[in-house]
Amino acid sequence: MTTFALVGAGPGLGLATARRFGATGHAVALIARSAEKLDGLNADLARDDIQARGFTADVLDIESLTAALYAAAADLGPIEILQYSPVPRADFMKPVLDTGVDDLDAPLAFSVKGPVTAVNAVLPGMRQLGRGTLLFVNGSSAVRPNPNVAGTSIAFAAESAYARMLHDTLAAENIHAAQLIIPGAIRPDAEHSSPEVLAQRLYDIHQQRDGFRHYSEPLPDQP
C-alpha cells in the first residue's frame, strides 16, 4: 500500500480528495495545524472504511512539516502522491500598494518554503518506488496577478515556477508534478468547482499524467 499525503487538510476539498484517493486503496495522511480538525476528518473517512491518520504540522514551520511527512511514511507506507493545498491566511491579501517587504515573509514561506520542504521530504520515497505525483492547487492569482491580493499573487507565482521546474526535471524519473488552478470559489453547488468534482479532477491528473497546468474552469474574461 502507498500513501496519499494531503498538506492542508480540511473539510471541503481536502476531505473530498482524501476520500477519492482513499477509495482506490491508498492510505491517507492528513496534515493540518489543528488536531481537533484532524480527528473529525479521520472519523469521516473511517465511516467509508478508508485508512487515514492525522499528523499535526504548520506549513510555516519547516521542522514540523518535515517531521509530519516522515512520520506519515513510516506509519502508513511510502508516500506516492503529495497534494499541497493549504488555504492562505486572510492577512496575505493586502492590496499591492499597502504591501511592504515584511508582508511578504509569511506568504513566501507558505507558498514556497512549504512546498519545497514537503517535496524534499517525500521525493526520496518516490524515487525508491519508481513513481510519484506532486499536486499543487492554487487560485487564479497564480497565473493572473491580482493587485488586491498582492501577497498571494507574488507567492503563488513563485510556487508555480517551482512546480513547473519540478515537472520538467522529474518527468524522466516517472514523477509527475502538476498544478490545478481553481479560478472561483469552491462551493458544493458549483458545476466545475465543487469539492467532489475537483477531487475527481485531481485524481484524473494523477492517473493521466498529461501536462503541467490544468484549470477547473476557464479564467473569466478581464474587463
TrEMBL record:
Q: Which residues cross the membrane?
A: none
Identify the domain of life: Bacteria
UniProt feature coiled coil, ranges: none
Which Pfam families does the UniProt record give?
adh_short
Listed InterPro entries: NAD(P)-bd_dom_sf (IPR036291), SDR_fam (IPR002347)
- Please identify the protein, giving its name as recorded: Dehydrogenase
Q: Which organism is it from?
A: Streptomyces dysideae
